[in-house]
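Researcher: For the annotation table, I need structure tokens for Sterol desaturase/sphingolipid hydroxylase, fatty acid hydroxylase superfamily. Please keep the output clean. Sequence:
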Amino acid sequence: MKVFEILYQEIIGFLGLGGIIELVKKGDYSTLSTFDGIANFIYPLIPLLLIIEIIRAVVYKRFRIEDYKVPFLVFVLNRFLSRFISIAAVSFCIGLFGKWAIVKTSFTWYWLLYGYIVWEFAHFVYHFLAHKVRLLWCLHSTHHAPQQMNLFVNFAHFFLEAPYADVIRTSICIIMGVNPPMLFLIMFIDGFWGSFIHIGENIMKDARLGIFNKILLTPSHHRVHHARNPLYMDTNFCNLLNIWDKVFKTYQQEQRDVKIEYGITREMNPNSLWDAYFGEIICLWKDVVKAPGIKNKLLYIIMPPGWSHTGAHKTARVTRDAYMHEQQNHNSL
């Protein structure tokens, strides 16, 4: 019976229904006027969209188990590995850097706007480094391994990536004066939107969201980010506001004549949990072992993916620059 109880609790937790069930049991609906009460009704939206996405795929005969297999297995694995690590990381950073805050903020709309701009910058820093430092890419690549976009991809992460991300983002925000209550609200908004932008084509074929495509980072932008096409590689690092991508020249719109190819550039078995989870770590280890000298071994760890001590670099920047140069030459003919 305990097994069924644990399974029930896991399902309820994944669907985000715990708060609603507790609310109905107590019969006290006054909490709906509070942030926690509202959050209890928002949490189930992403799992609901995921279920609708799967149902539509089945109805229209586009459902393939392999599109969901590895992200689901990664989600299950991470439930046992990282569910408490991120909370501890956030708490640690708040306690460590709180006294070094350069400004003091209050819970007002204008400080919330300030806090969100700071959070987006912090997210950009974490996300940019995850693509530009090979050791960190080993943690992040699991999220890019799926070769189709759907809402379950949001749950596909190496178990150490969330703590690393939270240390970077929380540290920057706390140092910049974002107070913890406001930071938690921002995290909630950002987490919901960060899940939504992984919505698949079974629900939203054109994910540009009209006029919002110019203001926000839409699912269309994030599909570009997950693409391995040379034009799209290492772009759109933001999560909700695309301001920092525009500032740092990493912004890229989805082109109607360039079909998105999802996944990573390394040859891999897309149906293998082992390859999606540990493949990049194994490749890095092999390169470090083969590299001549301590300096080159260290450089393989800290340089971007695709860097080579021989000079035959195949980094995203080199690949994208070569593609853009080729396109310019083609257009000039």
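Researcher: And a one-line annotation?
Model: The first helix runs from residue 2 to 15.
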